[in-house]
Write a structure and sequence with these properties.
The chain is 46% helix and 15% strand. The protein has 354 residues and is an alpha/beta fold. It folds into two domains: 12-61 and 74-138, 3-Layer(aba) Sandwich (Rossmann fold); 145-287 and 317-339, NAD(P)-binding Rossmann-like Domain (Rossmann fold, 3-Layer(aba) Sandwich). Residues 142-351 form the Glutamate/phenylalanine/leucine/valine/L-tryptophan dehydrogenase C-terminal domain.
Amino acid sequence: MGVFSSDADHEQVVFCQDKQSGLRAIIAIYSTALGPALGGTRFYPYAAEADALHDVLELSRGMAYKNALAGLDLGGGKAVIWGDPDREKSEPLLRAYGRFVASLGGRYYTACDVGTYVQDMDVVARETRFVTGRSVEHGGAGDSSILTAWGVFQGMRAAAEHRWGSPTLSGRTVGVAGLGKVGKHLTAHLLEDGASVVATDVSSRALDWVRATYPQVNLVDNADDLIRSDIDVYAPCALGGALDDDAVAVLRAKIVAGAANNQLSHPGVDKLLADRGILYAPDYVVNAGGVIQVADEIEGFNFDRAKLRATKIFDTTRQILALGDAEGVPPAAAADRLAERRMAEVGRLRTIRL
């Protein structure tokens, strides 16, 4: 897959290399129509460069739409560092990456993602000020998964109201695929709301944690078993592509609402879900709590203000589901239309000469 052969219409794609530190990174800016691009840095051992490029292009586009629907005056971008974070992450590598972020002059703000943490952002910030998602000790918000999970829970409540008439998961069974940073917090919210939780994870450490912390959670061996389980809501909270044609064909849930990015393996999956009567709460709508949290740092972080903004994901999800019904399109298409409308209408104002 080449950059110019992509039809994603990105503004800028930057390949970054520092051989001495081992850095191999790609920064993709999809849109700055609403403001500087904001999106996290994923550190992942991709099988090939083409896989890294595909991921960063898809993720950066998703960030543009996510930030638009979250009501932020920020565009969409993303970065990937190609490598194994457990073996290759180092201070020189992270600082070299920070130099490349700085070279963009503020067109791109970075933050945490899979394989990177607030401590890593503190290191990157030693080379550039265009970093958010930093530790509390350095004036940041800390772990962005807290409000990511809160936003997913709000989106799930809105989907439950749309499907069953009441904005609660009480008495429902929710399948959580992935008990990482977000899945753990989401599980807590669901249990507090009175839901039953069935879960799985590829990490034995995560499974041991949930056994010790929430023994009432039922565990299954893998995501395939979870999809086939007798659940009301399916919550993908790991890597993307969880929903393909085969998974949709056997999925028993009536709602899909989770934290993972790019949950649909291809654009037609949203229609497959709709044809089976499964309500899909678009991932980039419901998982926007994290970006709302880190974006708030740019103003000077206030947790209560950020949580209030993340709580509004309930209203945004409700609006999108209603629009989908009114226009006869799947929720993902309705969400895209709202995001594109805001990027076009607000972006146009930036052409007015002052």
